[in-house]
Amino acid sequence: MKKFLIYLCLFIFICFILPALLTKQDMKANSSDIAKQAPIDMTNQEDKNNAESKTDMDKNNTTIQLLHQKTGEIEEVELEKYLCNVVSAEMPASYELEALKAQAVVARTYTLYKVKNKKHENADICDTSTCCQAWVTKEERLARWEENLRESNWQKIEQCVNETKGKIITYQNEPINAFFHANSGGTTELPVNVWGGSGFPYLQVVQTAGEEGYSQYASEVELSNEELIEKLKTKYQDIQINFQDPEDIKILEHTDSNRVKTVKFGNHEISGVETRSIFGLKSTNFEMVKEANKIKFTVKGYGHGVGMSQTGADTMAKQGSNYEEIINHFYIGIEIKGINSLS
User: Fold this and answer.
1) Which of 192, 297, 302, 317 is buried most, with the most CB atoms less than 10 Å from its CB?
2) Angle formed at CA 22 by CA 18 and CA 28, multiple of 5 degrees
């Protein structure tokens, strides 16, 4: 009987207790292995995520080489900070937020286009509107605003840049040459009629309503016959005009946007673009009226007329359009993408 009990206890130990003990040790060993491996896997994933975030951050925080024309100094500037200075210089802070957002995206796109298509030998872009796009320091901009508007205006500028951070306008996955101007006079212009060349498919003639209420919409230049001749002689020394002949001063041809393409001044036919330059007109959308001993130019719009009209953008924003709708109105067949989407 005593032997039977010993054998029975030994049988129970071998069949039940010993396997349970071994299983517990295996589980403990496996848990220990997992605990050792987990930090390695998590660290690898964290490193991967950090690397991806760093790549995105690097693209969004592109720096540019900015040429200050007056001093010749080249300054390295972080793109998004640079854009605050550009937007504050190019568009009134009183404009609608969505219009300012559109301007921020346009300015960012124009900047990246210049980076890819350099005009300056050692810089990406300059701070002059007649060459690239306008730029002023924050201090200069604040000084030009009324004191009670300075803080709120700058916050508005920063908001429009921050809320569109990294957004650019693309055509075939490349930044477009995002031209813009103050006031289209109701219709934008083709670049080929301003600068020649073959033009760009995304810059077409579009209609823009509601620009009449802005100061940039209408202007006049009045010149005496003598002043007219004097200004023309800066380019054409042999100019001769018979002011008694109604056919000696006349508009010969218009562009599709109803801007002046060619004008006859006596023995010369010159382009509307050159006429604008010689007489200091605000656009090529003008009419000429001869009155006694003077000529009056009645002008619509302000600027070359290509791309986005700033007053047009503000009008659309007031009517409820967001910045993407504004951009898609002025640039044809484009896509608004993040900088990170570019190869």
Assistant:
1) 302
2) 145
Decide if 30 is inside a domain: no
CA–CA distances in Å: residue 197 to residues 59, 225, 284, 332: 32, 34, 18, 19
Q: Considering the domain boundaries, does residue 329 fall inside one?
A: yes
Q: Is residue 245 included in any domain, yes or no? A: yes
Q: Is the pTM of this model over 0.85?
A: no
Cα distance between residue 318 and residue 296, in whole Å: 34
Give the angle subtended at the CA of 137 by the CAs of 322 and 150, to the nearest 5°.
65
pLDDT digits (tens, 9 = 90+) for 2-17: 444 455 455 454 554 5
Q: Domain range spanning residue 227?
A: 218-300
Task: Give the end-to-end CA distance of the chain in Å, rounded to a whole number.
Answer: 87
- 3-state secondary structure (DSSP) of residue 185: coil
Query: What pLDDT, in 10s, does the model give residues 268-288?
Result: 999 999 999 999 999 999 999
Phi/psi of residue 290, each to 5°? -95, 125
Q: What is the pLDDT of residue 48?
A: 37
Q: In whole angstroms, what is the distance from residue 200 CA to residue 178 CA?
A: 10
Mean pLDDT throughout 142-154?
Answer: 96
Distance CA 262, CA 255 (A): 9
> Quick one: tokens of 69?
């024309």
In sequence order, which residues have a C-beta less than 8 Å from that of residue 202 and are 6 or more positions away? 171, 176, 331, 332, 333, 334
Go through the chain and tell me how many residues it has. Answer: 343
On whether both 207 and 272 belong to a single domain, the answer is no
The reported pLDDT for the residue numbered 198 is: 82
Same domain as 146, residue 264: no
Between CA 221 and CA 171 the distance in angstroms is 39
The confidence score (pLDDT) of residue 288 equals 96
